[in-house]
Amino acid sequence: MRTDERFPGVRWVGEPGRFIRVDAEKCTGCGSCLKVCLAGCFEVVEKTARIRSLEWCMECSACWYICPEDAVEFSWPKGGSGFHTRYG
Amino acid sequence: MNTSIQSEYDVVVVGAGFGGTAAAHYTVRHGLSTLVIERAEKIGEKIISGLTIPIYGFLFGPGFIRDGSPPVERPVDGIINYIVTDIDRGDIDINDTLRVPKPLAPIVAFGYNAYCADFCQWQADEAARVGATIVTGTVVSDLLIEDGIVKGVALEDGTKVESKIVINAEGSQGLLSVKAGIRKKYPPRVISLADTYDYAMKKQDVDRIFGHSIRFLWGWDEQDLAPPLGYGNGLMVWPYGKSLHFMQDQCLAMDDGTVQNLKKRFETYHKNVTGKLPWWSGEVAERVELRAHTWQCFEIFVGLDDELREMPLSTGGMLIIGDAGGLESTELCDGVPSAWFSADIAGRVAQEAIEAGDVSGEFLSRYDREIRNHPIIAWSITAPHRYLLRHAQESHDEALLKKYIHGGWGFGALAHTITPLTLVFLKALRRDPRVMTSWVRMFFRYYRHWHHTFSDNAADPGDRQRHPADRTTGEYIFIFLMWWTDLLLFVFWPFLWLMSYLLVPLVNAMKWTAGFFVALYEPLWVRLLRWLDTGAEKMTKSLTRFAVNAHPDTFGAKRRRES
Q1: Does A17 contact B at CB distance below 8 Å?
Q2: ipTM of the complex model
Q3: How high is the pLDDT of residue B459?
Q4: Looking at the domain that runs over A26-79, which CATH code has it been given?
């Protein structure tokens, strides 16, 4: 279980796996995923977005919705893993 | 909770949120073996954000919620809108005309605030208590589809669970439906990202500063207090038991397709609103401590888009409920009542289909029709006022801004809510008019339960064990009145049944006439509200004192058995 003082009230459980992926073939490097991700999960390197870390991902799926090229593949993290909060 | 999974069930429910657990409760109570599969380790802990569940969800939703004592954080009496036209000059108008008047409030509530985790866990416990099997920490990775009919689900470890009906309550992303090609992924312009803050606050401070009212904020875009008008909520503050919940949300994309840097935008709004809004910086800031910061996407404007709204809500072997079907309300931004209504309808259709031995898409399409014809769902997913606010910003017309706010979250809302609410009321009356006394008991029971959950007063009688004979005169009168009302309603049921049909044309006609009458009576209403705020104070106190001191059985409070 992990917590982080930047995101109070949230605990991350277990190993969620690579539940978000970026298809480098489709990505145009527009950076929309960076703009909508409040956890800073993405970075753009050489005009292609890639996952920096899913460690603080809140599984909001904004990256999946926003990608104009459908390059972000989104699925749920492994059962019981990922973010949890009592205060939602 | 029973966590052993069999290979086959009558009904498999995907998702243990507000809708999924309610649907499971229905199907189990109607004799169908039911499995609920939840991806979170703990129920409700992946659901954001906090909320006011509007009262119509409780009145017309699942009976076990109405007749139970769910964990509510605070009864709400209405909305206070802060309309900020110039924050630096302190130009702030208030519209608080959509409120339940005293002495009815706070016992007769406009809605109930709740934490999702607590409330969904309670619903899940109730479903498990009547026999639903609920497994947590498990992801449904796929639907089992044969000849176009959903025959069950596949879990992430490869386990297959067969079912006659899958009730899909997976939430707004709807990944399973998208993956199976039944529904499309929503475009980002109809999706809002809700940035949510939870602040711990002493109960007496919440009571004194907020009471039972939720607060909304609206302001011109250039003030940077709130997301662009018409693209989300500037600030919604919900007073809870011993905390404040705060949400700001914004659509992922603008109409012209541009994408703003939401991380920066939200930080700016939050800094400005907490720093510049007088009541926050002056009264609230020093009394709160940030306890949680979370966010989540939800579908905000799906119902306003003809193509998206018409996407299927069922296919052979599967019914899609709640947010998974795009049923979030556009104005109150609350999906719970629609999730509850659709859960009940889906449960009933599942039962009919299984009894008829026909789970084809054609048979289940009756579910789509019922959802689309449900007056409250239809209204709540198509109400336009929030969306229209963007036009007020474009023309920078203050009168227009206030008009839309009044129509969406002020007394003007009655003009477009009265018809759907009355139509559903008439239907409830037809089914059993005695539901009205269960509402009265619910209001008192919920208030009592809430009071004792958060009471700090050691002298408070609380849930003390009282002998049933040890009743006050007031309690006897209450019980007597309820009993007699039930009897009268039962005797006059045929008459009420007939009236409920005869009144339908009149209620439908109110769609066009209600606006006129609402405008006509509004000045009177506003004066009455003001007068009752002080004039009915004593009576309000008497009523709340009666509610909190009464024997728990007076209001039909069910004693919860541990599951």
Answers
A1: no
A2: 0.97
A3: 56
A4: 3.30.70.20
